[in-house]
Design brief:
Blueprint (H helix, E strand, L loop, with lengths): L33 H10 L13 E10 L18 E10 L14 E9 L2 E8 L12 H8 L10 H9 L5 H7 L14 E2 L4 E4 L5 E10 L8 H10 L3 H11 L5 E9 L1 H6 L19 E10 L4 H6 L12 E3 L3 H17 L78 H10 L2 H15 L4 H14 L1 H10 L4 H8 L3 H7 L3
Antiparallel strand pairs: 1-2, 1-9, 2-3, 3-4, 5-7, 6-7, 6-10, 7-8, 8-9
Helix pairs in contact: 2-3, 3-12, 4-10, 11-13, 12-13, 12-14
């Protein structure tokens, strides 16, 4: 369909190729050319702040279909019956790089789902790994700063990267995943997804359990080697974005099978690992995967900026039947994500179509603010309780059940609780990897860690040694380090090891 240009306010544009000038050889532009002012003024404001993390991404629409009944655990309506379908939007991303970075970079991949349920939106915001580098939100800004650029040179800095990780041994599990070939997925379609944090299911009877989301790719896992990732980054920096779009365009719809792990509150109190520590997994042998449903992506966005770039996901966007756990990392995310949206997109970001709930009963007392594009609820009073207009609470619905907490408020200091931050990383190296996986892991680490200061190489090699002696030894040998010194550092306390490698 042919369209004719107008200004933003609808006035026809007679000429979009020439501005109004005084004419002649020595012509001057005129400020009264309102269309020129509008066009230039809009142009210099076209960019919004990019995400501090997950800046580079791609997305698509689809649906979630329930295949197995777990309604005994949760009163969430979108999970209430087999065959029920819920529309969704998904966004995949790299984490640390800027919007122009390569899809093949060694980095975790964001895996975010927005379900448009009948009870409001439900966001599942995770990564392609079941764990994370740190377990306390207090450390998150510092961690991300190490993934960015040196404040003086503006360049990526390997010393900065490894300095923080080697001083934060809880990261070794995620580091082991990141520097395996799982750190460079072949495409967004060929990787698993996880909500990573622990969550609560509760039902109409006020019973609750803890659970974790797992989304296993139906396309099969496919990864790039380090060399293949470097070659892909040079040949096609947008390869994964392109692959997702083109696969959907040709009708090859990507899908994932959704599972949960379930843990009772009694089991949580006695499990060998803190079940709310996001640096740890729940072993499948202890808590098997329970199938729940299927995700299928079958429609591409019409406009990348409007839909993918403005999509806003937050773990605090929940529906009845699902509630946060005491996971310290999660507790910080509940604030940080929606606050990021208020900064990037504005207070009324939920009015942007890709973020708007599809539920028909949306009503809130939150009014006004920049970019209020709806009717602002007309003339109704926006306070409660009131006797002016009819609106009320949903008192008839089941509330979140009380949680029995054993809690003491502690002044901010280093926790005394002993954490085993090495065992799971060691098990991953020893049991989950084959010889080729381990060879690639060592090569990938050595190639990156070798660009950091030598004292930091020793500290990080010692962390690997604590996880598994062979693991640390091989890293040390690949970097031509003194293995005996690495072993000595590994046997120190974290504080002692830090002090021994500060100079």
């Amino acid at each position: 369909m042919s369209r004719k240009l107008t200004t933003a306010y609808g006035r026809p544009v007679e000429n979009d190729q020439s501005s109004i000038t005084t004419g002649g050889r020595k012509s001057f532009g005129l400020v009264n050319d309102a269309y020129l002012m509008e066009k230039l003024g809009h142009f210099v404001r076209e960019r919004i702040p990019e995400r501090v993390v997950h800046a580079k991404g791609a997305g698509a629409y689809g649906y979630f279909e329930v295949t197995d009944d777990i309604s005994e655990y949760t009163c969430a309506k979108f999970l209430s019956e087999i065959g029920k379908k819920t529309e969704l939007f998904m966004r995949f991303s790299t984490v640390g790089g800027e919007r122009g970075s390569a899809d093949a970079a060694r980095d975790p991949r964001g895996f975010a789902i927005k379900l448009y349920t009948e009870e409001g939106n439900y966001d599942i915001v995770g990564n392609n790994t079941p764990i994370f580098f740190i377990r306390d939100a207090m450390k998150f800004p510092d961690f991300i700063h190490t993934q960015k650029r040196d404040p003086q040179t503006g360049l990526k800095d390997h010393t900065m990267f490894w300095d923080f990780l080697s001083l934060t041994p809880e990261s070794v599990h995620q580091v082991t995943i990141l520097f395996s070939d799982r750190g460079t997925p072949a495409t967004f379609r060929n990787m698993h997804g996880f909500a990573s944090n622990t969550w609560m299911f509760y039902n109409e009877d006020g019973e609750y359990i803890w659970f974790k989301w797992h989304f296993l790719t139906d396309q099969g896992i496919a990864n790039l080697t380090d060399q293949e990732a470097e070659e892909m980054s040079a040949r096609d920096p947008d390869h994964a974005t392109r692959d997702l779009f083109e696969s959907i365009e040709r009708g090859d719809y990507p899908s994932w099978t959704a599972y949960v792990q379930i843990m009772t509150d009694e089991q949580a109190r006695t499990y060998r690992f803190d079940p709310f520590d996001v640096t740890k997994v729940w072993f499948h042998s202890d808590f098997p995967l329970i199938r729940v449903g299927k995700i299928v992506l079958n429609r591409n966005p019409e406009n990348f900026f409007a839909e993918v770039e403005q999509a806003a996901f937050s773990p605090s966007t929940l529906v009845r039947g699902i509630y946060p756990s005491p996971d310290k990392m999660l507790q910080g995310r509940l604030f940080a994500y929606p606050d990021a949206h208020r900064y990037r997109l504005g207070k009324n970001h939920e009015l942007i179509p890709v973020n708007s709930p599809k539920a028909t009963s949306i009503y809130t007392n939150e009014r006004d603010g920049v970019m209020m594009t709806g009717d602002n609820y007309g003339s109704t009073a926006n306070y409660f309780p009131n006797s002016v207009n009819q609106h009320h609470e949903w008192r008839e619905l089941a509330d979140v059940p009380p949680i029995d907490l054993e809690a003491t408020v502690i002044a901010r200091h280093d926790m005394d609780m002993v954490q085993d931050d090495y065992f799971q990383a060691g098990e991953l190296y020893r049991r989950a990897m084959n010889d080729m996986d381990r060879d690639h892991l060592i090569s990938n680490i050595a190639g990156h860690l070798g660009k950091a200061l030598e004292r930091i190489q020793y500290r990080q090699a010692a962390v690997f040694y604590r996880a598994d002696e062979e693991y640390g030894t091989r890293v040390a040998e690949a970097l031509d380090l003194d293995v005996d010194r690495v072993k000595t550092l590994a046997n120190m306390t974290e504080k002692g090891r830090a002090e021994a490698t500060m100079q």
